[in-house]
Each structure stands twice: as C-alpha cells, then as structure tokens.
Amino acid sequence: MQPNVSARRVRPLFVLSGHGIARTLALLLVACASMVAVAAPALADEPAPAQTWVTDGQVESVVPGTSGVVYITGAFSGVSPATGAFGSFDSTTGAVEAGWPDVVGTIYAIAPDGSGGWYIGGLLSSVGGRPRQNLAHIRADKSVDTAWAPSADGVVRTLAVDGLLVYAGGDFGEVDGQARGRLAAVDATTGALSAFDPEVSGTPAVTSISSIALVGTTLYAAGQFTMVGADARSDLAAIDTTTGLATSWAPDPDGSVATLAVSGSTCMSAAGSTRSPARPGERSPRSTPRPGRSRRGHRPRSRSSGLIRAPSARSRSRERPSILPEGSIR
Q: Which pTM value belongs to this model?
C-alpha cells in the first residue's frame, strides 16, 4: 500500500543508506523546511523550499520524527536535487549545469532556436512555473519565453526549425484551438499559428507523426498515417512547406516508421515496424478525408524496407524514390 504522504517536498540534511540482501533499502535523514504529514492532519501551508529533492526509486514509508526531521525508506539508492524534465551537462566534466527552469511533464522533442535557446515539445503542463500545453521555448539565459506559448491538444513528438517557423509533429488534432492534423507550424518568435496545414490523417486512435526533417522547402514526415490532404501516403511523406501539399515522393512502406534522418539534401533513412495484416473480415485501417477531399494516388504496399533514397533537388521532379535492401549503404 502506498503511504499517505502530503504533496510537500522536503529538504535533506544528510543521507544514510544501506543495502539488504534481496533489495536496496535506503534510510534517509531529512530536515524539512516545512513538515511532511503522514496519516495525520496537514499543517498550515508554508512556502515550498527553494530546492527540492527526489529519490531514484520507490519510497515505501515516510515517518515524521522530532525537531522537523522526517525518515523515509524504500527501494532507492540515492537522493538528488530535482531538475524537472530539462537539464544539461558539461560535455567534458559531466557536471550538471544549474539554473534551467523546472519542466513538469515529459519532453519528447527538442530543437535549438539558433540563439542558444531551445524549443521543447512533449506532454507538458508547465515550464518554469508558467502553464504550457505541450510546447515551450526556453531562452539562452535559461528563462522561459513568456511571449511564446502555442497550445497543442496532444503530445508533440518531433520538432524542426527553419529560422522563421517551428514545425511540430505528434498526436495532436488542434493547435491554439484550430484544426491541425498531426502537423503544424508556428512563428518562431511570437508562437502564432501559421497557415501551414497538410492535414495528415489515418485511423484516429493510432495516427501520429513520430519524426520530421526539413530540407529547404521540403518537410519529410514519418509516423503512422494513411493520408496527407487528399493524397494517399502510407507512413512516409514529403510535404512542400510553401503549399502544404504532398509532393510526388511516396515510398509507401509496409509498416509504421519510427524515425528518419537526412544527410545533406539527398538521402533519407527510415526505420520502423511492420504493419500487422488485417484479420479476416476486417478492412485495413484507412481514414476518411475531410469533407471536400478525395483520395488519390494509392498504390499497393511495397514489401521492402531499409534505406530510402530521396531525390536530389535537381531530380526531385522526375525521379521516383528507390528502396534499397535492408542493411545496404551506398
């Protein structure tokens, strides 16, 4: 049974730890800035301590002692300052850099802003104490950009920046209350939603963009989907960022694609999992486009997988993509 512990965090004075035969059992001696209540009436609210601490494993029991001391035991081996979901380390010494804002939630994507700061996306509720819904901008001085606060109604899994716009992909269906099926772009300075709207769709419960890469005015997108606007595109697509329309590039893999990468402007590699065939009597999952749209360009699925070569800028208009055997490089 989990202990009845108030939401207060405690400030450690020092730590004593020991190891049992079957599991780690650590004993910590903690001095609080405010008392932790266990199976007892909560005390009056007091300001939270400036520094909070967390364990690296499960806490089994919390027992208040005397003189503001609290004892905790459990299956953990250490206690350290809480950093939230965002942090950085010195690449030489490994030392943790302090001062970043506390991120509440899970970060799935991060992209540099070109000025020493970072755009982050994920499943977020607040950054530096400020409400943020799955998107945020942290400046180079480690402060939260108060002017940049676009709101996505689902998880953001991937980001790409071209200097003027921040492209986001994920599980969302709306950004700032406007329909944006799994892909959107917002102003890099103000966070205002742009007109870019490729309308990626598929089976609602599983449709997602997992990875994007920007090459000039072409945005390559990978994930699990069946349509880009009115064009049939299975899990991989190239989208013209000026029009929001799918290009003729259509590798059509036979399963969802987890990630992609671009080398220069000519080559993209993709990896993912094979799609399970439909059971007898079931139809393969396909989505219905928005009203006024019709599907076009559907082709039978390829059975190949591995390295996928995207056309170069010179030949993009006339070459079809080729799929190399898995594990091959050229």
A: 0.69
